[in-house]
Amino acid sequence: MTFLETIFERLQQAASAPVIREVRGGKVISVTGDELLVLVRQARTFFVARGLKKGDRCALLAPNSIRWAALDLAMMAEGIIVVPLYARQAPAELVAMMKDSTPARVCCADAVIAAEIQKLWPGGPKVSLLESVFIGDAVSPTPPNRHADSDAVTIIYTSGTSGEPKGVVLNSANVTYMLGCTNARLDQLMAQFNRGGAAPDHAFHYLPFSFAASWLLLLTALSRNSVLTLSHDLSKLADELKIATPDYFLNVPTLLERVRRRIEETLQQRGGFAAKVFSRAQQAYLRRQKNESRFPDGLWLWIANRMMFPAIRSSVGVNLKALICGSAPLALETQLFYMMIGIPVLQAYGLTETTGICTLDDPQHVEPGRVGTAIPGIEMTLAEDGEILVRGPNIFPGYWQRPADTAKALAGGWFHTGDQGEVDASGNWRITGRVKNLIILNSGHKVAPEPLEHELAKLLPEAQQVVLQGNQRGFLSALIAPNSGNGLTDSRIQAAVDALNSDAPHYKQIHGFHIVAEPFSIENGLLAANGKLRRTAIAERFAAEIEQIYQKKSA
Question: How many Cα atoms within 13 Å fall on the side-chain side of residue 248?
Answer without folding.
Answer: 26
